[in-house]
Amino acid sequence: MFEYDFMVNAFAASGIVAVLAGIVGYFLVMRGQTFAGHALSHVGFTGATGAVLLGISPIWGMIGFTLAAGVGMGALGERLAGRDVAIGVILSLALGFGLLFLHFFTAYATQVTALLFGNVLGVSASTLGVLAGLGVLSLVALAAIMRPLLFASLQPELAEAKGVSLRLVSVLFLAIAALAVAACTQIVGVLLVFTLMVGPAAAAQNLTTRLSIGLVLAAVLALVQAWVGLTLAFYTDWPTSFWITALAALVYGGSLLGRR
Question: What is residue 79's DSSP assignment?
């Protein structure tokens, strides 16, 4: 299996993305912002299709659109009610533009399928470098805001009283989440980002209440699902995204049985 360069790239890319998705997804679940992750992936699709129409690599369009949307979602509403309204408005606008771009995108059916469902086996060395950069940047940024993020997530009223800007924390975190979503779509596609971002994190939170253990567990579960899914796809010739999704559902179901 590893005698093929495309498989080496696929394992490296899925490993980077899985660890990033597990850690960032843990905070998405903790903060009740899983809808944001779902919305960002659809916004990313709009950016990717627009980039292709302009002759630009899809990943750059996806990064640009998801990052702008993440910042917008955080800036428009840091509290639950306002946040969900902001996400809904941005998602609707993005889907409208996505429909427009698809109208001009009919000659690129293969690329559309790859964007929707992922194409980890087609990851190039240059894309792998971009994913590695996104992973490092996102994790460093997350580490930098870890303390105020935890404070704002667990005790928002007290954090605000102590001078923590909930809006700023929300903007920064959703910007990081946007980068993670853009990376995830390269592996599982726009429609299945929820699987890798939320599934392992939700399972980890079902199994432990300790933050440090939960973060590590979420990353490990995401990594195992990605690599096992990739291996099964190689030997069965079934889509990688299907296997990752099936494994995520299986692990989450098992976590409910062993819930703390």
Answer: S
End-to-end CA distance of the chain: 38
| CATH label of the domain that carries residue 104 | 1.10.3470.10
Determine the pLDDT at residue 184: 86
Tell me the pTM: 0.88
Q: Which alpha helices (H) appear in 105-237, and where do they start and end?
A: 109-117, 125-144, 146-154, 156-161, 166-188, 193-207, 211-236
- Cβ–Cβ < 8 Å for 20, 134: yes
Count of domains in the chain? 1
Summarize pLDDT for 221-259 with one digit per residue, the tens. Answer: 999 999 999 999 999 989 888 999 999 999 999 999 866
CA–CA distance, 37 with 200 (Å, rounded to integer): 14
Domain-located, residue 251: no
**143-166, pLDDT tens digit by residue?**
999 999 999 888 888 888 888 888
pLDDT at 260: 56
The answer to the question of residue 113 being in a domain is: yes
Full domain range(s) for residue 174 = 5-197
**Tokens of residue 208, six digits:** 């432990």
In a domain, 237, yes or no: no
Asked if the structure places residue 42 within a domain, the reply is: yes
pLDDT of 82 = 57
**What dihedral do alpha carbons 181, 222, 31, 67 form, nearest 10°?**
-10
Radius of gyration of the chain (CA): 18
pLDDT at 78 over 60: no
Query: Which residue in 233, 202, 238 sits closest to 30, CA to CA?
Result: 202
Give how far Cα 125 sits from Cα of 135, 184, 201, Å: 15, 17, 28
